[in-house]
Amino acid sequence: MAPPKDAKNTKDAAKLAIRTSRLTPTNSKDDHLLDFATIQQRYSTSFNPTRPLESRGLSAPEALKRLQENGPNVLTPPKKKSPIALYLECMGFFNTLLFVCGIAEFIVYGVSSDEGITVVYIGAILVIVANLNASIEFFQLLASQKALEGFLNMIPASCQVIRDGEAITIPANELVLGDVVSFRMGAKVPADVYIIQSADLKVDNSSLTGESEPQERTVENTMQNPLEATNLAFFSTLAVEGEAVGVVIRTGDNTVLGQIAGLTQGEHKAPSPMSIEMGNFIASLATISITVAIIFFGIAIHKTGDAGFALNFAIGILVAFVPQGLPATITMLLTIAAKRMSAKNVLVKELRGVETLGAITLLATDKTGTLTRNQMTATNFWCGGKLYSAYPHNLPPEELPFSIDACGINEILHISAMCSRARFDQTDVTVEKRTITGDATESGLLRFAGQKLLDIDQLGDKYPKVFEIPFNSENKWHLAIHQKAHKDGHLTLSMKGAPERVLRVCSHILIDNAVVELNENHREDFMHSYEYLAGKGHRVIAFAQLLLPGSQYPKDTVFTKDPKNFPTTGLCFVGLASLEDPPKHGVREAIGHCRGAGIKIMMVTGDHPLTAEAIGRKINLMLTDTKELRAKKTGLSIDKIPESDIKAIVIHGEKIDSLTDADWDLIFSKEEIIFARTSPKNKLQIVKRAQALGHIVGVTGDGVNDSPALKKADLGIAMNISGSDVSKEAASMILLDDNFASTVNGIREGRLIFANLKKSIQYLLSHVLPELLPFLLWAIVPLPSMINSQQLLVVDLGFELFAALSYAWEPAESEDIMKLEPRRPVTVESSERYMKRQAEIAEDYGMDPESEEFHSRSLVQRIKDSVRMLFTPRAWKRKFSKTDGETLVDSNLMIYSYLQVGIIEFIGCTTAFFVILYHNYNITPWDARNMMTIDANAFTRRATNNYTTIGGNFLTVDDQVNALAEGNSIFYFCLMIQQCFNLFASKCKLGLPIGRYMFANPKTFFSVLAGALFGAFIVYTPGVQTVFLTANVSPLFWLIGLAYGIFLVIFVAIRQVIIRTFWPMNVTAMIHGLQMHPTKWSTIRE
């Protein structure tokens, strides 16, 4: 018994940091703290801090030398398995067993040619089937890999660099340490760069940190943590505003991006729940079948003395035990489901991920770019003393519908469009479809203004800008002067920025389209509105203007910063605008559906806790009060709020490293969880902690910072459009349209495919016992072999394979599939049992308690461990212990297939076998046993005796052979008929095998028709009869199979009534407060 791959998820994870070392840049941890001279010395480069574009930079020979020493500026691609290794992995134990059986048949023919050429046919079929099973999965994996490669583009194509005193353009992968590079708005940072000059540079770090707001980058820095340093720009982040010149301090795998990618590669994904369950089932089935085959190999040698016959007989038992079409059926069912999901914009990289998505119990999702659009959008305006909403849907009483004619609105729109450095990249399409270059906040304001102002594209020509001071961290406002005439002059000064800073420079306010003096009442109204908007998690911007008098500022005035000749006081306050990074279309309803399906949804973001909570409350993720909010509402201190009354919690990332086991247990006991200000290491810890409790964890994300968690999760789901290449590589699934709502469709599809897979397996296993018992009865009673090896193969690989595949198109049995609990729900009791089991595994197989990795062991040692586990009682106890929840192959399925339907089908087939023997040859069961007792080769060409039945009928050897051929034929045909009825009976898990649902899948009827034609082809076709040892039988005998088939359906119906009466299905409790009605964001698509 090999150690389960999920055995690393143990309770004791206090030292997780050993495996996820802190993400601080290697070899240059203090670059951000150094001055220019020290940087030049450390990297042996030359630059001019005051005029960086006149820097010397590196020489071409030195750059070439460093490139050869350190390698190109690229991320090391993930290791990929060779096609041969991948193919062998797809073979697996199951197909390998079939392959070995096929080779053994060739050996049988070589040892004993008396068995005839038939054994060669059987051997060839088994070898082909084994390779076909593996090939189906192999080519599906190759197709997924090829599809993924089309989405990856790791680094910027080229960049500007200064070498030998000249500015040149080179491929970004040729950058080396010490290179002086320049980049500007719209470009990706080509490496980790130390800033030596910045002109209002802002970078989008959302893919690294999860912060939706662009970050300023300057030559000054006061932060100790290099990840928070303001004088460093990181590889692959986007410059959204301004420009800069810097020195390359890290390249390739040594960049922060490269370290996170390396952390991702260091994580090993646990096998899917279905893989574990099927692995356990196949291992148990193989152990039993091989043991039984060996035993009966000995019995056959003892009875016949023919080693070749005995080996062929043992192989027959193995083939009967093992449903040969099972791997192909599972792979093809998953492939069909994956294609359906692909049509819904979900790319499945790993087939097992289709089912895993339906099994998840906890979904940890990033916020920025996943739940939200990563696009700031104007939502509210406060001007003229009134509060307006940009979207008039379900408005609270204090908000009014937006009106462009309202006091101050037109001014705000013009200031948004003109006092801005954001620009449309194109003007030949509608505003909604235009790409905007610039700061996220300014882009949001510009887009809204463009939607409301008809002359948005002419404003620049109509009102030329004559002076501008961009937003900076010192002033915290943006000022612009335009040639915009008014009754007192030709120039208008506009300002926007931080509300408290803008208000400070204002002396008047715009009320009822009149400029009035600013008083305390106005200031109170301002503060009330400001706090209201900020409390919603919005970013709030203030607007002001000053109509410059023509007598003091003529039209041709030239404004300068030094000396300052423009006013920055006495402005007129126009109003406030608030923006938010809004939820994506359908996210609110999607999370509601997930929670209704019993799945715990958890936000894990790098953004601020207040912002994260505000978004969470808009999207059904957080409905109840946190301790802090309850204390605020009730006026009680936090310590006096009972923990049992609180179902929601928000955790700051800084606290994660200090959390105890009890703290983690408390957090995961809550229904609504948000982790904010988290690092990649934190996200990885959270995933591992959830898995350690037995959760099947799904993780969605789009940033580089999400990739380690995506890789470690049971199912990682990345975004295609907004997602980073590293996150796509780490994930198991990719949402091609970035629509989080597609996850709900995926979960529904996953649950449906699990139900259909289980039905298919239940159906396939039902015919195992009718195939196996004739071999055992031949050896034990003895009775003539009622079915031969050739017929076993055409049962498993003919009709049965195609019939089982029809379940791929089976619709949901009930519309309540998303109201059922997850198949393996996590409770306190189940977590305790899971952790105990994992602790045992860790002890049995030697896990390092600190690194949570199994000790390195040689192949010989692993084999010894597996053998040792065969004789370890608690290992067997674990294997056969009752599992929590529902598994793919559970005791209920085994009882149905083997002990109930299997027995019914065997009795029906055996009845038909002996009826035709008695009707056509007057052979009773007693005669059949007596003939086999006298001569073990009776009923075959090797029989040595004629025989007279108890009824006086004389049977020659030819008569015996013909009797067995007819008996085999009706046994095979009746098995097929009963399986046709079982095909319908196995559909039902929630209801009865009657009614409209039985006719919902037309492919079922095609399967039945194909089965009837295929069975007739095998039994009645001349030539084919010779290969499969069949003979013509009267259709009258089909009625026996029909009668038993009808009885089978009646039995299953009674069984279902009993099960649903005493063991009803568990549905999730209704969650109060879920808001599933359309909102302004769910009715407005991006």
Tell me about this structure.
With 1086 residues, this protein is α/β, with parallel strands linked by helices. Helix content is 45%, strand content 14%. Helix 9 packs antiparallel against helix 23 (742-765). The protein is elongated.
Give the % helix. 40-55%
Helical stretch tally: 34
The count of DSSP E runs of length 2 or more, i.e. the number of strands, is 29
Given as residue ranges, the uncertain stretches (5+ residues, pLDDT < 50) are 1-26, 151-155, 1080-1086
List the helices and strands and how they pair.
Blueprint: H1 36-42, H2 60-70, H3 83-111, H4 118-149, E1 158-163, E2 166-171, E3 180-184, E4 192-204, H5 206-209, E5 215-217, E6 232-233, E7 238-250, H6 256-265, H7 273-304, H8 307-321, H9 326-343, E8 346-348, H10 352-359, E9 362-365, E10 377-383, E11 386-389, E12 400-401, H11 409-418, E13 423-424, E14 436-437, H12 440-452, H13 459-462, E15 465-469, E16 477-482, E17 491-497, H14 499-504, E18 506-511, E19 514-517, H15 520-535, E20 539-548, E21 571-580, H16 587-596, E22 600-604, H17 609-618, H18 627-634, E23 648-652, H19 661-669, E24 672-676, H20 680-692, E25 697-701, H21 707-712, E26 715-719, H22 725-730, E27 733-735, H23 742-765, H24 768-780, H25 789-805, H26 828-845, H27 859-870, H28 873-880, H29 891-921, H30 925-934, E28 947-948, E29 954-955, H31 957-985, H32 1002-1020, H33 1024-1028, H34 1038-1062
Parallel strand pairs: 9-22, 9-25, 11-12, 18-21, 22-24, 23-24, 25-26, 26-27
Antiparallel strand pairs: 1-2, 1-3, 3-7, 4-5, 4-6, 4-7, 8-27, 10-11, 10-21, 13-14, 15-16, 16-17, 17-20, 18-19, 20-21, 28-29
Helix pairs in contact: 3-4, 3-8, 4-9, 4-25, 7-8, 8-24, 9-23, 9-25, 10-23, 11-12, 16-23, 23-25, 23-29, 24-29, 25-31, 25-32, 29-31, 29-34, 31-32, 31-34
